[in-house]
Amino acid sequence: MTLFRATFAVNGDDCHQRQKVGDKSIAPSTWQIRFHLDRVIEGGTYMLRIALAASHVSILKVQVNERAGEAGVEPRVRPDLPFSAGDAKPNQERGQRAFQVGRGGRRAPLFSLLPRCRAPPTPPRHRAPPPPPRRSAPPPPSPAPRAQLPPSPAHPCSTASIPGAASVACRRLPTARQQLLPRPRSPRANCSFPGIRPSRASASFPRIRQRRASFPSSAQHQLHTALRHLLLGSNIINVGERTVAMAPDQMFDLNFEPVDVDGDDADAAIDNLLDTPQGVGQQPEVAHPDEGHASSEDDNAKSAGMTVPTATTASGAVDVEEGVEVISTPNDPCVGMTFDTYEAAKSFYNNYARYKGFSVRTDNSKETKWAGGTSRVKYVCHKAGVNKKKKPAIDGPITEKEVTKKRKRDHIERTKCPSLMAVKFTRSYWVVDNFRAEHNHDLVQKFSLTKFLRSHRDIPPEEKQFIRTLHNCTIKTVRAYQLMCELYGGEQNVPYTVCDCKNLHKSYGVENEEKDMKKTFELFDEMKKQDPDFFYDYTLDKFGRVEHLLWIDGESTKQDQVGTTGSFVDTGISRTAIIIIIILLFIASIFVTDFLLTIAIVILVLILIFVSNAVTVAIRTMRTSILTAKRHIFNMYSTVASRSPTIFIRTVFLIRIISGLFISVFSITLIVVFQRFLIFILRHVSWIVPVLRPALTVEFSNPVTSIVRRRCRNQFLFPLIDLSSTNSNFLDKACCPLNCN
DNA sequence: GATCCGCTATCTATAAATGG
DNA sequence: CCATTTATAGATAGCGGATC
Length: 741
What we know:
Elements: E1 2-5, H1 8-11, E2 19-21, E3 25-27, E4 49-51, E5 58-63, E6 96-101, E7 167-169, H2 176-180, E8 191-192, H3 207-212, H4 217-233, E9 238-239, E10 242-243, H5 263-274, H6 296-303, E11 319-321, E12 324-326, E13 338-339, H7 342-356, E14 360-368, E15 373-381, H8 400-403, E16 420-425, E17 430-436, H9 461-472, H10 477-488, H11 498-511, H12 516-530, E18 535-540, E19 546-552, H13 575-591, H14 595-626, H15 636-642, H16 650-663, H17 668-684, H18 688-696, E20 698-699, H19 707-716, H20 718-721, H21 730-734
Antiparallel strand pairs: 1-7, 2-3, 4-7, 5-6, 8-13, 9-10, 11-12, 13-17, 14-15, 15-16, 16-17, 18-19, 19-20
The structure holds a DNA duplex.
């Protein structure tokens, strides 16, 4: 039962900020969450789950049962739990516990503290042999026979939250039946090793967990320890002589009776709940020899001063401490290894490849009739095969394109690398039927650099959502990436590049590409309701797309000051431009004796000056009077006037040319009257609009290519477009009365 | 006949250079 | 810093020969 879930978009202002009390003093703010429970089980066990994001040194203080101490109300916290020095500061009065995190410069890693959704566990088709006992830590006895019943569908995890927001969620303790089910810890069950016990470094090397393990350990360990004590201390784990925990993937309903589990599982449950990588911030776990190996290559590399991953590290963890990378050691693939899906096989091989320092691609796949689809897939090193032959040079004259300097591109030189892993479908599962480990090229030795390899670059879904949220909050792409670097503890830990963020940002624009016109017209309709004089019209091309768009706001005709307000039609003419034209005419008459040539030169100058000026005025008008929101980070002038010569404003063109010719003969007053007369005609003589529409509308693009139009729409109308999700109030801002401040 | 293997052509998605 | 462009990687399918 999720009681509260906060997001930046909806309630970003609900962040727990300090409050000013009086002039100088600052007091912390407090959230109080009340659980309205219909049925409370006395002596039951309930779990409070907290996600915390802090950018500075922060103190988390949790108080449970504020009525503790009152008559008939028992305090539900254990005041006798020890706290590690530096990890937590107990304040045990009235059941309070306070923890300080983020101290020492390193900030609490964000995502490692957040709950996440897990996919429903896939029942393994091919069961792994029982693992032998560990040497270092013998496993506890199995509490109950598992996997006797088919796994129940996982409850939809509703605890996923937008990063950066606090969330409080509870989960249901497992029922007796659920305890008999295989614990969906990881995709490890999707893989089995013939003759080899499945290790934590096997196919259970989930990418997301591996990535999360790359957070720095110090602050994470602090918070982990703090929350661990909090959970252990607040009657979560102790019921009688047994400890109580929850299944990691089961929702916790406060109205269900809790079920005990053994202490080790409780320990693991909390580890899983906190989503903290094993061993991070603790003594590195010594891996079993079966789990990996420290090859002679590694030793050689070490002796050569290179940083190599070692086998004696935590599972899946990569940390950077004083320049030394620490990662886990996945098992090598071997013939006979089985997987549920070929995607799982690829994921496993990809993780192995990242540890080794190469990238993976799919070489080819074959289909057979009996399999009903792909039956064999071969994954190879990214340097397998040979580079494509370049097309032979075309005889003939050298074109301009060939002369133009070509871009520098990354080039992967394929070396016929023999490394591969082939999996074959055997009617029930996928089995590795071929594996070659040797490479004929150098591998990436430093683990943190492997993120640049193609197959290892990825932005996890939750971080995509986070970046999108940042983007909607006007945080630029590069800034968002810098933030992620900060959260990861350094750019070397971020599993993607700033270029990936840019491309992700670009994809957001593509999503809205088909919505912009609809949103624009909705906005225009709204504006028309508020401004009865507002007028707009449009034409469609043969494909039904908006070809021309015209709008006139009501303020344009009410302003006496020509040239500073108005719409695309009423762009007016600036007095500065008039002076310039008179000077140009004077100069031209001095140096050019031919009358017609003089007129031609003047017309050209007029076009250049007026069109440019008109666009400038129109852009300024749009910026100040219509697009009132703050998300206008685009260079309209360069878009319309400089970069797109196909775009011009016919209306302005005609009006300005005619006006400019009149300037040399008549007074400025006549021009103003003429312009206002045109506008009056446009607004009040209905039949003239369709007649003059082609000349009175703004040409946005060549309808064939639509590139210019898309560019113009993306930049010019983008603030009107992205109305989804977080900026739901943007429309209200944009629809405020025109020329409002 | 089914399968495997190597090679090539074609298409698509995208990384990243480029210009404004 | 952003939108646009474009070369490239990767995916896919097809073909022919070899092998079982």
